[in-house]
Amino acid sequence: MRLAPALALALCPVFVYGQGDYPTVRPGAALQFPRDHGSHPQFRSEWWYITGWLRAAGGRELGVQLTFFRNRPRVAEDVSSRFAPRQLLFAHAALADPLASGLLHDQRAARAGFGLAQAEEGRTEVAIEDWWLRQAGSGYEAEVTARDFRYSLRFDAKQAVLLQGERGFSRKGPNPAQASYYYSLPHLAVAGSVVIGGRLLEVSGEAWLDHEWSSEALAEGAVGWDWIGINLADGGALMAFRIRTKDGASFWAGGTLRGADGRVRSFKPEEVRFEPLGRWRSPRTGTEYPVAVRVAAGALTLEIEPLMEDQELDARASTGTVYWEGAVRAKQGETMVGRGYLELTGYWKPLRL
Fold this sequence. Notes:
The protein is about 0% helix and about 55% strand.
């Protein structure tokens, strides 16, 4: 069952104010697998997020993104009716194709149940109607049939889980309660097919998966965040983010680097910097985004440039916001050293419920 936009309660699901009996994210809690690949329905919000680069025959490059959000709104939880919206699910899917006039994207929203939407516990299996992401063997499978595209993809894990922050406890502000549980799976090997404009393309590539859950909020005074997840060419992986205030200053920042040797280092807020290098203004919303940035994380500095400038995703019909989320290259000088995704939120309007 689809939800009307008025029921789209999960504007930015990973940062929502904890209330009532929502569990608290605590440092030192060990993540357990495979259990924590699945849903955590007692927490206020959660997301599974896959982004990657695809290559078709002839070298055509595409960006792919799929995100499933789960939200516990605590509405009518004591009501016995099956129609009570105890869990809400949202999904965004996109393809970045430089041959298209803009980002190809679609969205869905539903309450869990009725065989139409689900987020299973104990393993990754999330779905809204015929859109789904699920674990399969050592990896994942995804199917999306959208208005302007379709894809069927498999993502095979080639590396171990990367725990973000302090062994999976990821701070999002100066208050320790402002945190999430967060892990990633970089360097997923992708294979499958994409349909654009009725044309079937066999594709392969590399992707990144994030899974994050929390009961907490974007802190007061913060308006949004900049985030990158980069699969480095040497086999390493970098996640870095900063949370911004209204004047563009960094309210909080963090990140994790797994080097080619497998060593993992987490960064303190003062070690992470985002510097705009190029901006793009949306012809639809008038929003300006820093789509090219220089990111410093400790001693590592990368110049990030987009596959294409127009990767704005209008999600007002589901989660009520507009943001830029796009495929990017990572360079050092003229040398390309990685590929991944850049997410820019809170530039259209501050993220608020």
